[in-house]
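User: My instructor asked us to take a sequence, write out its structure as tokens, and then describe one feature of it. I'm not sure where to start. Here is the sequence I was given:
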Amino acid sequence: MNTAIASMPVKADSPFRRNMAIFAENRLAVGSAVVVLLFIIMAIAAPLIAPHDPNETDLFRRLQPPGWKVGGDWSFVLGCDALGRDILSRIIYGSRISIFIGAAVILVATTVGIAAGLAAGYLRGWVDVVISRVVDILLGFPYLIFAIGLMAMMGPGLANIIMALAYKEWVIPCRVVRGETLAARELEYVEAARALGASSRHIMMKEILPNILSPVIVVATIRIAHVIILEASLSFLGLGVQPPTASWGSMVADGRAFILEAWWVSTFPGLAILLLVLAINVASQGLRDAFDPRFSE
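Assistant: Let's start with the prediction itself. The structure tokens for your sequence are:
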């Protein structure tokens, strides 16, 4: 019996499991991933964990300092802004905006980028020329200036922010997918599928795409942090989410006039941006080291 069990073939771990095991060994990356997860939970559960209504104003609490400072109140632990609104509650609700916009932009941009990159890399010819020239043109514009111009034309609003940032963000996954597709289209399994009469769509979606998803996922994770910073920048300039909706960028902007006497108005939202972006960057670096063999050697 024991001999029979010992002779049974052992199922090899999948590449995904091996890569996740490598990622789990990076304690800093795992810790950063936990921080990102906590931010996501905070955003989802904002109505349950926010101590106050984020839009409730009280001029008697105007620029009230944090709870540990003289004149502070521990029920408003991070203090209040110029309209007497609780900063902690607004930070909690502001995480919803940053995380939602970051995820939505990356989802739209990655979907478009994958489709364009697959077409350019596999079909080649005029399709590749057109897509590559569009990518080159868009890359010639500074991202923030490009987004500011689009927001100035379309006007502020949540949907417009997603559109303005996704208009150019898709070129990043497109270039990655195109490069990976160019390499994969000459491999044996693609040649075999082509010899069997498989259509170009089948080869791109069923043969090539599943084998190039790892670098795409890594790039998408890295770019979320960049999109969050861009959203905060647009809100800081008054082109993003409009008041009274809580947004980290607009909260930083609200405290500019009081930075010396009421530093907490801008500092705590700025620290939230710093912590989330840093955690995403470190976690995505760990994912890159684990999933991309070019960086894990």
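For the description part of your assignment, you could build on this observation: The two ends are 41 Å apart (CA to CA). Try explaining in your own words what that tells you about the chain.
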